[in-house]
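Posting this for the archive.
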Amino acid sequence: MNGRKAAGYKEGIVSILINTILFIIKYLVGIMFNSIAMISESVHTLSDSLTSIIVLISFWLAYKPADEEHPFGHGRVESIGSIIIAILLLITAYELIVESIKKYLNHELMIFSWSLVAILIISAIIKEILARWSLNLGTVYNSKTLVGDAWHHRTDAIASIIVGIGIIFSNYYWWLDSVLGVCVSSFIGFIAIKLLIETSKDIIGYKLPSKLETEVKNIISSISKDISDVHHIHAHKYEEHVEITLHIRLPPNISLSDAHKIASKVEEELKRLYGWNVTVHVEPYIESEKD
């Protein structure tokens, strides 16, 4: 199995198992101590399993082989999964900030118990470890889907800490967890929007970063002295599969055969260096014409 695909499956399955176990523990403890805060936190933990299920479905569909209707494969399904996860993260941030404001307005106090605090701390540590693991996989395999799931795990860890702080200081600073909740949820919302914007670029198509574009132009220009201009470089990402389209200008009197050979050399060189699938459009160079 492809290493990237295996990582996606592993992350999704492990996340679902851990979230389910933590949900059961938190829910039972919440019932035992009659703690609405703990029961609510258990539901939040269980909801993280939804994003992990999306990870599994995204990776399963993304690695289906190309067919007649999808000649470039199904890689963008993973990007769609990333967008869904980012939206769910944004919803989580919204719900957390609304809940924090309600607690502040209602002066809500929490039932104090060191047992509740201990469960929340242990849960936060486990979810933060899971978040770092998922984030590392997302970074290694360049997967925004895994990065998004990592932030869902981290959100749950932070929420557990906030609830724990609220329980510890409920008799002294009843407003503390509400204030922390607003601050943290605002940060989570920022991360969600950033992830949403970055993932949308993969679907819409994007321009190469300036440094990389300059590097590519220099490589192409060095292939043949007949190449006078390189422009309109556009990237179309299908996760691991990347399609690049670009234009080069050649002398108007060059033969079709020679123009084809130069274009093929450009495609082969960029494929060798970057692994891209490149399509080159050839234009005649006219002195008065500047792009």
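The mean pLDDT is 85. The CA atoms of residues 31 and 72 lie 51 Å apart.
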